[in-house]
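My main concern about presentation is that the manuscript never shows what a single data entry looks like. The format is easy to grasp once an entry is in front of the reader. For illustration, here is how one protein appears when written out as sequence plus structure tokens:
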Amino acid sequence: MLKSREEKTKELLTVTDTKIEVWGREEFKNELKETAYRDKSIKTIWAKVIPQTGKLQSQAADTKLSNVSHKILVRYGAGKDITQDMHFKVRGNRFDIKYILNPYYADEWLEIFCEEIIE
């Protein structure tokens, strides 16, 4: 059975349960009057963070490298200005954007695929 637009919107509103910060690059002049960039918090939006894949690799000298990818669902209106050069912060963890999907070009929500960066 097909859902109406109102039913889909209501369903998506109940799905977004995590507050995330959107971060981008801000241009500024440094002490040498050169153009430089720094991270800046742009806005805070509601989203759903869904773990996708995880991989653990053993490296030399008993070190481990982990690679965890996530899918972040946001409402289209809240996330339509998000670009691939931005990143998210969720509860202190950084998520770099790999790519952004607008499913079926329906303009209802965005699926943003990210990689968790462990600092």
Remarks:
- Residues 104 and 110 are 10 Å apart (CA to CA).
- Helices lie at 5-15, 76-79.
